[in-house]
Write a structure and sequence with these properties.
The protein is α/β, with parallel strands linked by helices. It has helices at 38-49, 64-70, 89-97, 114-125, 136-143, 161-171, 180-194, 229-246, 252-273, 281-284, 288-296, and strands at residues 22-26, 29-30, 35-36, 54-60, 75-79, 103-106, 131-133, 155-157, 197-200, 206-208, 214-216. The chain has a single domain, classed as Ribokinase (UDP-N-acetylmuramoyl-L-alanine:D-glutamate ligase, 3-Layer(aba) Sandwich), CATH 3.40.1190.20. α1 (38-49) packs across α8 (229-246), α4 crosses α5 and α5 runs parallel beside α6 (161-171).
């Protein structure tokens, strides 16, 4: 671990679950074209494995019971939908803005309807807890012509190369190549343009802050290149932001660097103990607690 990666937050011996942060996840889709639930439940599972005190899943009403079946340790808030299955924006916004949490993840499996874009605009315009925007949340950012930045809340953006390419085209930012220098430049440009922390995923994930700082992860493995791996990372980021905030440390870039390092080391642990290929994203979460314990010692 480098000096740029903080140690995991301390966990007091007499602590209770309220001391370790609550995260909310806004995601999932049940419309005429798609049914997607795995992404938000993977986010929640990763957050719990990272030691957060609770997870609230805010999902479309038809997915409420299946969400509890997939992640029985979570609480679920059903979001109202229209006849076509798309979220009802007016009915969903109060639930999302009232979510009592220390950090939020917005976007995993949420779909690309105009409702997603409308909810995103309302979310970013309101004050609230730090919010990790991932997956379809990032696609909504790239389609939004109205000004979004600076947001009313602290934000972490977590694009993979394809999502970054769409954001770069939308905002007129430099392309991200495969070399470390261009990836650092790209992540920094997006962070400065949006006044957010940016986690540009890929081989050598880059974490950039709005102050121009960058950090590149130097460990990892291609076993992480599987569906759902990014959802695990989003859950890790939110969980560590929430725990750090409860411990009195509100540095989103530092918490994001720690999450990226834990994610990479968990992948290495799976590869070393099982195989160099074939990992499933939920299996990655089994190594999170051990890596955090190792980094805390």
């Amino acid at each position: 671990m480098t000096s740029d990666v903080p140690c995991p937050p301390q966990r007091p011996a007499d602590g209770h679950k309220g001391d370790f942060g609550i995260i909310a996840v806004v995601g999932g889709c049940h419309d005429e074209h798609h049914v997607m639930l795995g992404a938000p439940t993977l986010v929640g599972l990763a957050a719990l494995r990272a030691g957060c005190g609770g997870v609230q899943l805010l999902v479309p009403r038809p997915l409420a019971v299946p969400a509890l079946v997939q992640l029985c340790e979570a609480t679920v808030t059903p979001l109202p939908v229209r006849g076509s299955g798309y979220l009802d924006q007016e009915g969903s916004m109060p639930h999302i803005l009232r979510a009592r949490c220390d950090a939020m993840v917005f976007g995993p499996g949420l779909g690309t309807s105009r409702t997603t874009s409308g909810i995103l605009r309302g979310l970013l315009a309101a004050e609230g807890p730090p919010t990790v925007i991932d997956a379809d949340g990032l696609n909504a950012v790239a389609r939004c012509d109205e000004p979004l930045w600076p947001a009313g809340r602290p934000v972490v953006l977590t694009p993979h190369p394809g999502e970054y390419a769409r954001l770069a085209q939308h905002y007129g930012l430099p392309a991200a190549g495969s070399d470390n220098d261009s990836r650092r430049l790209a992540a920094r440009a997006l962070a400065e343009h949006t006044d957010t922390v940016v986690v540009l995923k890929g081989h050598g994930t880059v974490v950039a802050g709005p102050d121009g700082s960058t950090w590149t992860c130097t460990c990892g493995t291609n076993v992480l290149a599987v569906p759902g791996s990014g959802d695990v990372l989003s859950g890790l980021i939110a969980a560590l932001i929430a725990q750090c905030a409860r411990a009195g440390h509100a540095d989103l870039a530092a918490a994001s660097r720690l999450a990226v390092e834990v994610h990479a080391r968990a992948g290495l642990a799976w590869a070393q103990s099982v195989s160099s290929r074939g990992m499933l994203a939920h299996e990655l979460t089994n190594h999170i607690a051990g890596v955090l314990e190792e980094l805390a010692s």
